[in-house]
Amino acid sequence: MAGERLDDDDADATTLALVSGVNVRELPIGPLEAFVLSRIEGVTSRDDLVIATGLSSTEIADIVARLIVLGVVVEAGRRVPGGPTTMRSGAHSIPLVAQKLAGGELSLEQQGVLLDLDRRGKSIDHYQLLGVSREADAKEIRAAYYELVRVYHPDRFFGKALGGYEAPLLRVFSRFTEAYETLRRPDSRAEYDRYLSARQRTKELDRYFREPLEELAPVGRSPSAAPPPTSLVPPASVPPASVPPASSPEALRSSSSQSFRRPSSVPASDPEARRRALARKLGLPSVPPRSSSPAPTVSAAEHAGLELKRRYEERLTQARSEQLAHYVSLAKAAEERNDLVAAANSLRLACSLAPGNLELAGDLAELERRAAAALWESYLERAKYAAVEGNLVEAAEAYERAALGQPHASYFERAAFYTLESGGDLKRASKLAKQAVALAPNSAKCRLTLAQIYAGAKLFESALAELERARVLEPNQPLIKEWIQRVKRGDA
């Protein structure tokens, strides 16, 4: 579990230190390993890393083992019981040196912590932010918060030159306080725990909707497919063909000219012969005149290049077909084991290879709907909590996915409203609001939201039309009357 503490029996575990002289940029490590590496300051224990990163003890053990093998980290010895090197606060560590500030300025350690927490924002939960486990009692939560207050309270830096760190300090400390106020009360903590559970249940589907398609090796190319030729013209060492192939333009012209030659003798009963004779009497040509400009000739080298291109395109088409069949097969297998998110992801890759295949697109839409239908209640719980907390972007996304799984006018309307309020895409908001109106045409609220979106897009005539429809449904609604006046003034 993120933010967990190691057992007290590990209090004397070996500590870790960085190896000097190692160029970290040249190491074959990923972002997660680099992040853990950045948390090792001086002499650090594995317990401290669990707290500083929010990762589990198992994850830390695996990453540290790899860093030791790479020679960038060494075990520095046994930690002295009762002598911690840092004051710990969950998602980060507060070095003791940070408490010894000259004149109350931000130390380098504090600057790093602030920027890291500000960057991670809402991606870390309240427990990780305060540095306590999910099972922490009220006493532990209060102690963790007051530890942060002693170090990061904005009043400690009153009148000091914080520069670009002032805004992150205020934002991060506000989040500390928000986390403490939420977790210290049993009812709000229970509600927050339900929200975290709902977020965990919907994590995989969130990733599906948010992440772009996987990077494919050149689309349509299988590993065994030959690379495209660097030139469509064959090398100079290839001798040109002395006779054009039967399908070449020269051969076609030759055969065509033969077909237009008049035979030396034609039976009198032949109607074609009579036609030609009549044409001669009238002074008309018996055959269509040849083009005055000769058709361009194609050299043997150019013909060979065109043949190479044709063969390459055939291989490319075959490789695309093989990839398409592969992803469709993966989707079916995932669907059979009821892993709808994995099935949708595979089918989305298949659709990228065949963008004009309407049947595949329909199957993908149905899979997405089924995946959302299994989670719509979790999304609805997330949406309501996010809206109350003022996280309008998350509220809009969660309401939209709840509506995808359980089409309901109110869910579409809320998704549209919070998309508008969060400064999101007005075209998307309009689409959601129109779906709400289609499901509930007699809902003044749905029409009001659509009108507000039109007004936001400066489509005042459309906005006024929707507002008039809403007023017919609810003649005494003050908000509708207010918006009619605003739209008429053009200040909506």
CATH class type of the domain at 95-184? Mainly Alpha
Mean pLDDT: 76
**Beta-strand content estimate:** under 5%
Major β-sheet strand ordering: 2-1-3
- The CATH architecture of the domain at 95-184 would be Orthogonal Bundle
Biggest pleated-sheet summary: 3 strands, antiparallel
CATH superfamily of the domain at 95-184: DnaJ domain
Alpha carbon gyration radius: 36 Å
Global shape:
extended
Derived from helix and strand composition plus strand pairing, the structural class reads mainly alpha
Order of H and E elements: EHEHHEEEHHHHHHHHHHHHHHHHHH
User: Terminal Cα separation, in Å?
Assistant: 48 Å
The helical percent reads 55-70%
Number of helices: 21
Number of strands: 5
The residue ranges in which pLDDT falls below 50 over 5 or more consecutive positions are 1-12, 78-104, 214-266
**What name is given to the CATH topology of the domain at 95-184?**
Helix Hairpins
